[in-house]
Design brief:
mainly alpha, single chain
Protein backbone atom coordinates (compact mmCIF):
# COMPACT_ATOMS: atom_id res chain seq x y z
CA UNK A 1 0.00 0.00 0.00
CA UNK A 2 2.90 2.35 0.73
CA UNK A 3 4.10 1.94 -2.84
CA UNK A 4 0.72 3.09 -4.20
CA UNK A 5 0.92 6.28 -2.12
CA UNK A 6 4.28 7.05 -3.72
CA UNK A 7 3.06 6.46 -7.28
CA UNK A 8 3.62 9.50 -9.50
CA UNK A 9 2.97 9.91 -13.21
CA UNK A 10 5.58 11.68 -15.34
CA UNK A 11 5.30 12.75 -18.96
CA UNK A 12 8.10 11.44 -21.13
CA UNK A 13 10.15 12.98 -23.95
CA UNK A 14 8.83 12.50 -27.47
CA UNK A 15 12.01 10.75 -28.67
CA UNK A 16 11.59 7.89 -26.19
CA UNK A 17 9.11 5.80 -28.18
CA UNK A 18 8.82 2.91 -25.71
CA UNK A 19 8.09 5.42 -22.96
CA UNK A 20 5.37 6.94 -25.13
CA UNK A 21 3.79 3.49 -25.41
CA UNK A 22 3.87 3.16 -21.62
CA UNK A 23 2.34 6.62 -21.27
CA UNK A 24 -0.45 5.69 -23.69
CA UNK A 25 -1.17 2.51 -21.70
CA UNK A 26 -1.29 4.48 -18.44
CA UNK A 27 -3.74 6.90 -20.07
CA UNK A 28 -5.95 4.00 -21.15
CA UNK A 29 -5.84 2.61 -17.61
CA UNK A 30 -6.87 5.98 -16.25
CA UNK A 31 -9.79 6.40 -18.68
CA UNK A 32 -11.07 2.81 -18.50
CA UNK A 33 -10.47 1.99 -14.87
CA UNK A 34 -9.57 4.94 -12.66
CA UNK A 35 -11.89 7.73 -13.78
CA UNK A 36 -14.18 7.29 -10.80
CA UNK A 37 -14.00 7.28 -7.04
CA UNK A 38 -12.50 4.11 -5.60
CA UNK A 39 -13.19 3.77 -1.91
CA UNK A 40 -10.19 1.76 -0.71
CA UNK A 41 -6.67 0.75 -1.60
CA UNK A 42 -7.75 -2.90 -1.74
CA UNK A 43 -10.46 -2.06 -4.26
CA UNK A 44 -7.99 0.00 -6.31
CA UNK A 45 -5.51 -2.87 -6.41
CA UNK A 46 -8.25 -5.32 -7.40
CA UNK A 47 -9.57 -3.04 -10.14
CA UNK A 48 -6.11 -2.47 -11.61
CA UNK A 49 -5.30 -6.19 -11.51
CA UNK A 50 -8.58 -7.04 -13.27
CA UNK A 51 -7.94 -4.36 -15.91
CA UNK A 52 -4.37 -5.61 -16.39
CA UNK A 53 -5.58 -9.19 -16.85
CA UNK A 54 -8.11 -8.07 -19.47
CA UNK A 55 -5.48 -6.03 -21.32
CA UNK A 56 -3.03 -8.94 -21.32
CA UNK A 57 -5.70 -11.34 -22.61
CA UNK A 58 -6.42 -8.96 -25.50
CA UNK A 59 -2.77 -9.45 -26.59
CA UNK A 60 -2.43 -6.21 -28.52
CA UNK A 61 0.93 -5.93 -30.22
CA UNK A 62 3.14 -2.93 -30.85
CA UNK A 63 4.72 -2.62 -34.28
CA UNK A 64 8.14 -1.10 -33.52
CA UNK A 65 9.56 0.99 -36.33
CA UNK A 66 12.67 2.15 -34.48
CA UNK A 67 15.40 -0.30 -33.52
CA UNK A 68 18.56 0.11 -31.44
CA UNK A 69 20.83 0.58 -34.47
CA UNK A 70 18.68 3.39 -35.84
CA UNK A 71 18.52 5.00 -32.40
CA UNK A 72 22.33 4.91 -32.10
CA UNK A 73 22.67 6.72 -35.43
CA UNK A 74 20.10 9.40 -34.64
CA UNK A 75 20.88 9.86 -30.93
CA UNK A 76 24.57 8.94 -30.54
CA UNK A 77 24.93 10.93 -27.31
CA UNK A 78 22.19 8.85 -25.67
CA UNK A 79 23.55 5.41 -26.59
Amino acid sequence: HQMMRQLKFHFTPKHASWLNMAEIEIGILERQCLKRRISSMEMLIGEVKAWEKQQNQARRLISWKFDKEKAQKIFPSLY
